[in-house]
Specification:
transmembrane helix, 4% strand, 4 helices, mainly alpha, DUF4133, membrane, flat, transmembrane, 107 residues
Length: 107
Protein backbone atom coordinates (compact mmCIF):
# COMPACT_ATOMS: atom_id res chain seq x y z
CA UNK A 1 0.00 0.00 0.00
CA UNK A 2 1.76 3.07 -1.19
CA UNK A 3 0.38 6.55 -0.94
CA UNK A 4 0.73 9.11 -3.67
CA UNK A 5 1.56 12.61 -2.44
CA UNK A 6 1.47 15.66 -4.66
CA UNK A 7 4.30 18.14 -4.35
CA UNK A 8 3.30 21.78 -3.98
CA UNK A 9 5.66 23.61 -6.30
CA UNK A 10 4.32 27.05 -5.41
CA UNK A 11 6.10 27.30 -2.07
CA UNK A 12 7.95 30.60 -1.49
CA UNK A 13 6.46 32.15 -4.62
CA UNK A 14 4.32 35.29 -4.47
CA UNK A 15 0.57 35.03 -4.91
CA UNK A 16 -0.29 36.04 -8.48
CA UNK A 17 -3.59 36.59 -10.29
CA UNK A 18 -3.74 37.78 -13.89
CA UNK A 19 -0.37 39.54 -13.52
CA UNK A 20 -1.11 41.19 -10.17
CA UNK A 21 1.29 40.32 -7.37
CA UNK A 22 0.71 39.91 -3.63
CA UNK A 23 -1.03 42.86 -1.91
CA UNK A 24 -2.16 44.49 -5.17
CA UNK A 25 -4.92 41.87 -5.46
CA UNK A 26 -6.35 43.17 -2.19
CA UNK A 27 -5.98 46.79 -3.29
CA UNK A 28 -7.89 46.03 -6.49
CA UNK A 29 -10.63 44.19 -4.59
CA UNK A 30 -11.02 47.05 -2.12
CA UNK A 31 -11.11 49.62 -4.91
CA UNK A 32 -13.77 47.69 -6.82
CA UNK A 33 -15.86 47.40 -3.65
CA UNK A 34 -15.61 51.18 -3.17
CA UNK A 35 -16.71 51.71 -6.79
CA UNK A 36 -19.72 49.43 -6.24
CA UNK A 37 -20.74 51.45 -3.18
CA UNK A 38 -20.21 54.72 -5.10
CA UNK A 39 -22.43 53.44 -7.93
CA UNK A 40 -25.18 52.57 -5.45
CA UNK A 41 -24.97 56.02 -3.84
CA UNK A 42 -25.07 57.81 -7.21
CA UNK A 43 -27.99 55.69 -8.42
CA UNK A 44 -30.00 56.13 -5.21
CA UNK A 45 -29.38 59.88 -5.27
CA UNK A 46 -31.29 60.05 -8.57
CA UNK A 47 -28.50 60.46 -11.12
CA UNK A 48 -29.22 59.01 -14.57
CA UNK A 49 -28.14 55.37 -14.90
CA UNK A 50 -25.98 55.99 -18.00
CA UNK A 51 -24.13 58.85 -16.33
CA UNK A 52 -23.49 56.60 -13.32
CA UNK A 53 -22.09 53.90 -15.60
CA UNK A 54 -19.81 56.35 -17.41
CA UNK A 55 -18.46 57.75 -14.13
CA UNK A 56 -17.90 54.32 -12.58
CA UNK A 57 -16.45 52.95 -15.81
CA UNK A 58 -13.93 55.78 -16.03
CA UNK A 59 -12.94 55.48 -12.38
CA UNK A 60 -12.71 51.69 -12.71
CA UNK A 61 -10.46 51.96 -15.75
CA UNK A 62 -8.21 54.41 -13.91
CA UNK A 63 -8.11 52.13 -10.87
CA UNK A 64 -7.17 49.07 -12.92
CA UNK A 65 -4.47 50.93 -14.86
CA UNK A 66 -2.89 52.40 -11.73
CA UNK A 67 -2.95 49.10 -9.79
CA UNK A 68 -1.38 47.19 -12.69
CA UNK A 69 1.23 49.95 -13.13
CA UNK A 70 2.15 49.78 -9.43
CA UNK A 71 2.31 45.99 -9.57
CA UNK A 72 4.71 46.00 -12.51
CA UNK A 73 6.78 48.96 -11.30
CA UNK A 74 7.27 48.06 -7.64
CA UNK A 75 6.81 44.29 -7.59
CA UNK A 76 5.75 42.22 -4.60
CA UNK A 77 7.09 44.36 -1.72
CA UNK A 78 8.30 47.52 -3.47
CA UNK A 79 5.33 49.73 -2.66
CA UNK A 80 5.50 48.75 1.01
CA UNK A 81 9.23 49.52 1.05
CA UNK A 82 8.60 52.90 -0.58
CA UNK A 83 6.00 53.85 2.01
CA UNK A 84 8.27 52.63 4.85
CA UNK A 85 11.19 54.69 3.51
CA UNK A 86 9.15 57.89 3.92
CA UNK A 87 8.82 57.28 7.66
CA UNK A 88 12.60 57.10 8.24
CA UNK A 89 13.90 60.40 9.66
CA UNK A 90 16.55 62.24 7.69
CA UNK A 91 18.70 62.85 10.77
CA UNK A 92 18.67 62.40 14.53
CA UNK A 93 19.16 65.32 16.88
CA UNK A 94 20.53 64.90 20.40
CA UNK A 95 20.66 67.89 22.72
CA UNK A 96 22.62 66.10 25.45
CA UNK A 97 25.19 63.34 25.69
CA UNK A 98 23.21 61.54 28.38
CA UNK A 99 21.95 58.91 25.93
CA UNK A 100 25.47 57.87 24.98
CA UNK A 101 26.81 57.96 28.56
CA UNK A 102 24.05 55.61 29.72
CA UNK A 103 24.94 53.14 26.99
CA UNK A 104 28.42 52.78 28.43
CA UNK A 105 27.11 52.12 31.95
CA UNK A 106 24.91 49.25 30.71
CA UNK A 107 27.95 47.00 29.98
Amino acid sequence: MSSVYEINKGINKPLMFKGLKAQYIGYLGGGLLCLLILYAVLYISGLNNYICLVIIGGLGTGLMMSIFRFSHKYGQYGLLKKSAKRSIPTYLKFRTRKSFINLKKGN
